[in-house]
Amino acid sequence: MALNLGLLGFSIFLSLFETSKGKENFQKKEVKHKNYSFSVGNLVETYKKSPLRKLQDEEVIFLTLKIFADKQYDYDQNIYVAQGNVKALINNGVLKSDFLSYDKSTGILSAKGDIRFTKGGQYFRAEEFKFDLLKKEGFIKDAYGIFDIKNVSDDLKIDTNLNKTEVQNRTNSRENNTYDDGIEFDFGNIKLPDNKITRTNKSIGSINNWRFKSNLIMIEENGWESNRIIFTNDPFDPHQVAFEGIDVIAEEEEDGRLVITSSKTNLILENRTKLFLGKRVLGRKKKSKNKLEFVLDSKDRDGLVLVRRSNTKTIKKNIKLDFQPQFMISRAILGKTNSYKNTQNKNINFSDLVGLNIKLKATNDDWSFDSLNDLSTLNTSRIFSGLRHSSSFRKYFRMPIIDDSSFNIFTTYRSRAWNGTIGETEIKSAFGGFIEKTKYFTTGELKNNLNIRIGSAKYEAEKFENTDLISLWRSSVFASIDSQYQLWRGESEENHKKNMTLFSPVLINPELVLKSNITSAYFNYLNSGDQGFLKLSIGPEIRLGKLERSFFDYTKLSVMPGVKIKFGNSPFKFDKAIDLKTLNVSLMQQIYGPLIFDVVSNLNIDNNSKNFGEYYHTKLGLLWQKRSYECGIYYHPNNYAGGLYFRINGFKFANSVKPVF
Predict the structure, then answer these.
(1) Residues ≥6 apart with Cβ < 8 Å to 492
(2) How far apart are CA 208 and CA 151, in angstroms?
(3) Is 42 strand, coil or helix?
(4) Are 205 and 186 spatial neighbours (Cβ–Cβ below 8 Å)?
(5) Using an 8 Å Cβ cutoff, are 626 and 240 in contact?
(6) pLDDT in tens, 607-648
(7) Helix (H, G, I), strand (E, B) or coil at 53
(8) Burial of 416 (0-12, 13-18, 19+ CB in 10 A)
(9) CA-based angle 65:71:74, to the nearest 5?
């Protein structure tokens, strides 16, 4: 029956009685109560006499339905009533309630008292349910439930061809909750790191499993709606984060995926703090980003910038185009610009207040093309001073010996580069190509990541001695291998069965790992000599504590000294082999509760270097880490960049998760 009311799991009621023509009767034995003898199987014969016969033939579906109850009544073959421990088995789904009734004359089906429905990955509870099969509308009172959004439509279809094995496979039999997906919001001009505690970032832009509750849900022909509904991604109580949806509408998209839209949404943290988020959509495949966001860019845009995100334009399925207009807030307030060092004129006009970011991506089976054009001004007199460009074409192929590889052609204009304690430098322009091979492999217990690159390109960039530009062809061979070997791992406690803590979405095990990096490179500069180096870094990384207590229960410390041996010299600043002796230090330390300090830095420890004692590539972070969400602020003092982020973690719920919260 094409009513789309399976969205909440109660559409199975639409034809429990009127359109049922299953080969198996409801219940084989007769039920006697007082002087009335009744066989439930007789109900299926009344279909032709029912007012619901006016439903079109194509709406008729076939069910396998059994009903069990302490008491069952059939008044004049018109009103069916089941009381006490009612249990209905409907096409691999189970419905339970205290009371169930159906009036054939009105087409009204109702259930009351501890209503529970389970099928596949869906579970719902309610106190009262009523549905009018003629008007195709109804309501559910005091509803609680668990959504598996990916499978909700399939789980709740009324279809006798439904594969029982598939339904059983989707049925939740997991003993532990597992970190599975998530949503991320960020602000700033740096690439934010993955979660170093979970060692991954599963923020794919959507969350599949939710718990929900609502006082009243109204069912309509094309879906359902509610004035107010609460969703939480947290499998435990008290929940740490929740979404309050106002004027919520749920509909099924063409691909069968459930999409829930809330016209007004509030984010509730720790059941106390409430933040307004505006309109939000749950269940959509693509990551939905805010249309407007703020970015801090002091180098190219004089400070604060307002960015307007547009929807990605898709051309012929394999070409994607993004436009991002920008407004320079700080530049407008200052009334001048300090971003263009090669011009003495700091005055601005309106075109200097507008910027544009254009991204183009094209893909095919074995190749891809990416282009990024970033304009910090639309003033034609300084357009080339405000343009940064990069493009790359990548073709995948197989080669003898190194197997799967990629051939890359690239161009760049005004590319920013960082080289150790030299700091930031600029590559005015470059074009060329290279062959690249990356591979992950294991040797016993040793884990390895290998990268090999061979290529040639022409660069116009700053000289090492000063800021003068030179243009040279450079041929290069580069190889790097990162390895790690686990020396020790602490055992998890048996009582830690939930697989996560108050402050972490994953179980944390103390461990000691030995890490190493070997990097080698050779550069030949046409008519200008060559340069080569070999660098070795090795050191331990130790992780102590399980982030279960409030004070200093998590420490992650990594110390990696490095030595670089070189010959020759580069005429360029951006690839000059410097910092021949270094020390890399990384520390994450729980301070109190969810508050964690994170720092990564590199130190020049070469006594013969004029930059001895200087640090570089430093990243400072202050994090608020919880099981269901995390947020933080990062700052890079070497290039005056920073960013904020907020992540919401999603989980595959265990079978012990309770819908009521």
Answers:
(1) 507, 509
(2) 9
(3) helix
(4) no
(5) yes
(6) 999 999 999 999 999 999 999 999 999 988 887 788 888 999
(7) helix
(8) middle
(9) 70
